[in-house]
Amino acid sequence: MIEQTMNRLHNMKLYAMGEVLSQLIQDTSRSDLTVTEAVSFMVDAEYNKRKNNRIKRLLRLAKLKMPSACFEDINYSAKRNLKKDQLNSILLSDFIANHHNVLISGPTGVGKSYIACAFGNVTCRKRTPVLYFRVSKFLEYMAAEQAMGNYLKTIEKIGKVPMLILDDLGPDIMDKKQRNIMMEVVEERYLAATTIMTSQLPIDQWYSVFGEPAIADAIMDRLLHNAYKIELEGDSMRRH
Known about the structure:
By secondary structure, the chain is α/β, with parallel strands linked by helices.
């Protein structure tokens, strides 16, 4: 009977439950467990395994530049103009549920990408999908989708991702095609999803990257609306 039960658990892909059942049968010290306790152990094991598998899958699909980035390892110092309370307030604000953006600026090497990836990591661990792109690669990807006739579907798909991280905006000025892509993406996500964007340029200089003033104003208006701004300072951390 036990063998039949194990086979059925395996066929239903309840592998963790099967493993715990096998352990409970072999462990004589657990013979005094009630049926309710045994079932609880089995269900908890299956739940935790599926939860961890989903987190691993989301981290893999997110393609974060630094998938292991975490807030616990961030160096908070006055020289970086970075306060732990500032990041904690963002994390505790339900910023994803409220579709707030996070804009991160600062000189090269001060940890902009790391902070962005830490946001991505913690979001995946909450079992919420994330996508990471360098801005240049993102524009190439969207242009390729446009050439293949998949553009509208891809725009719609990108618009539904709860967190989109666009890393390293500028300093090169976008051409007409690139800024139109950015405009459509930002418009699709406006008040519907969270966008995290980083740049070595101060935020008030991002307008220049988008080139044409009217479109630049439209893009920045949507990015800045309800956005948290993290403006880093200091020397490159890669020197240390």
